[in-house]
Design brief:
The protein is of the alpha+beta class. It is built from 13 helices and twelve strands. Among the domains are: 129-248, 2-Layer Sandwich (Alpha-Beta Plaits), CATH 3.30.70.1590; 251-289; 299-460, PH-domain like (Roll), CATH 2.30.29. The strands form three sheets. It has a seven-stranded antiparallel sheet with strand order 9-8-7-6-12-11-10. A three-stranded antiparallel sheet has the order 3-5-4. A two-stranded antiparallel sheet has the order 1-2.
Length: 473
């Protein structure tokens, strides 16, 4: 302080120093009413709200504006009147230092303010009475888990009764007083006891909530899985019904001859129906084959069965095996194929039937026989249901060799268009012949011989199986 310029006022909150220089000017308010009226008439609503005094007309205000001291005095009077009609709660502010600097704490200055504000005396007074007061709902919400009568929700008549039951269970009813809306607690030890009980129960409650929430999540996930499987099940049923409806639509005309659904395309099935569709395709093929076979005349059935047997043996071994032509089988008795000697063969056939008592002629044809010395001779081949005969056409079809049919073990052909056939017999030499095909010249009779022999082997039952290897081109 400087002598003659500064003065200091001793205040309970601390010493306040003032300067006489400009003291009166600072006390004056040079903000005249014209400026307030100008700011109030602004188009900005914020400025209008900041200067409410500007609403007065110029004719109503003629005095000079009030000084700062007068305004402060008036505000203090209004504050006292407001506090008198209310229940005040005082807030004490402690200044950390006199220099208004952040992060600096003057301990002596703070102790001085605490002593002059009477904070310690106020605390002692509060402790002498009821130091803590809480509304019943707030107290019950915080400590209800410590009592079996109030957790999770009480069934008593009021919150006050629930609080009373809680305190009786803890033995603390002597340290409290019940008001109309609040609970008054005398000693801090009561709150400490309640807080300790609450702290012990919080982990248990947390585990309970976690268990309940995890159970809720698990049940929700289970319901979602069930919904997913339900949707999948109904979608699969829909796909199955749609596929069956599509099959029914496509195969409506399958009974119409002569194709019987040959050109129909099977729709791609769902994965679950793939075995079912494979079975259906097999059944459809059998049904279609039955429909086609049913229209074949009985006189052609033997030829069809022989062709089927030949196809099963030669389908992947030989491309040309005469499946597209009619099979005569007994070419030696045919006047077309054997015009000059068919009568002689008929007589020889009659004599052989009486001698060997065979039933039917399976195959007969002129052949070119090749012996072990690579020499060839004209011969005839006769296949019945009991024997395989090699005949000499130059000597009225005299029998040169007879092999029981059950002794025939196999047959070998080539993959080309030639008519070479090797017949294998058990315990005898192989018979190597080349079938004649003079009428017509390009007639292929290898497949016919293979089919007839294979058909006979199938019908005989216990006879050895027929094989048709492909040793050469």
């Amino acid at each position: 302080m400087e002598f003659g310029r500064d003065f200091r006022i001793k205040h309970y909150a601390g010493d306040v120093t003032y300067s006489v220089e400009g003291f009166i000017d600072k006390n004056r308010d040079h903000l005249f009413q014209d400026f307030k009226r100008l700011m109030y008439n602004s188009s900005d609503p914020t400025l209008r709200a900041m200067w409410p005094d500007g609403r007065q007309d110029i004719t109503e205000v003629t005095k000079r504006p009030l000084t700062a001291g007068t305004l402060f005095k008036n505000s203090m009077v209004a504050l006292v009147e407001n506090l008198a009609c209310k229940e005040p709660f005082y807030v004490r502010c402690i200044k950390p230092n006199e220099d208004k600097v952040a992060a600096r704490l003057d301990e002596d200055h703070c102790r001085h303010q605490v002593a002059y504000l009477g904070l310690l005396e106020n605390v002692r007074v509060r402790r002498a009475g009821f130091a803590s007061r809480q509304p019943y709902p707030r107290f019950l919400l915080r400590y209800k888990m410590t009592c079996e009568y109030t957790w999770p929700n009480h069934l008593l008549g009021s919150d006050r009764a629930a609080v009373s039951a809680l305190l009786e269970q803890h033995g603390l009813q002597g340290d409290v007083a019940f008001g109309h809306t609040k609970l008054f607690i005398r000693s801090p030890q009561t709150l400490v006891t309640l807080e300790q009980s609450r702290a012990r129960l919080i982990p248990i409650i947390v585990l309970l909530l976690q268990k309940a929430w995890r159970g809720t999540l698990a049940r929700r996930h289970c319901r979602q899985l069930r919904a997913v499987y339900t949707i999948m099940r109904w979608f699969r049923r829909h796909k199955v019904r749609a596929h069956l409806a599509e099959l029914q639509r496509r195969f409506q005309a399958a009974r119409q001859p002569p194709l019987y659904g040959r050109d129909l395309v099977w729709p791609p099935p769902p994965a679950v129906l793939q075995p079912f569709q494979d079975t259906c395709q097999a059944l459809f093929c059998r049904w279609r084959a039955r429909q086609l076979v049913k229209n074949i005349p009985p006189s052609d059935m033997a030829q069809i069965k022989a062709k089927v047997a030949a196809m099963g043996v030669l389908q992947e071994l030989r491309q040309d095996w005469g499946c597209r032509r009619a099979w005569v089988r007994d070419y030696l008795s045919s006047a077309t194929d054997n015009p000059t000697a068919s009568g002689l063969f008929a007589e020889r056939l009659k004599a052989l039937r009486e001698k060997d008592n065979f039933g039917a002629v399976l195959f007969s044809s002129h052949v070119r026989k090749v012996n072990r010395f690579s020499k060839s001779r004209d011969r005839a081949l006769l296949l019945t249901d009991r024997h395989l005969y090699k005949l000499d056409p130059g000597r009225q079809y005299r029998v040169m060799r007879a092999v029981p049919l059950e002794a025939v073990t196999g047959l070998s052909v080539t993959s080309g268009r030639d008519q070479l056939v090797v017949l294998h017999a058990r315990g005898q030499d192989d018979l190597v012949v080349c079938l004649h095909r003079s009428r017509p010249p390009l007639d292929n009779r290898v497949g016919e011989l293979v089919g007839v022999l294979a058909r006979d082997q199938v019908s005989c039952g216990p006879a050895p199986p027929l094989t048709a290897p492909c040793p050469g081109p």
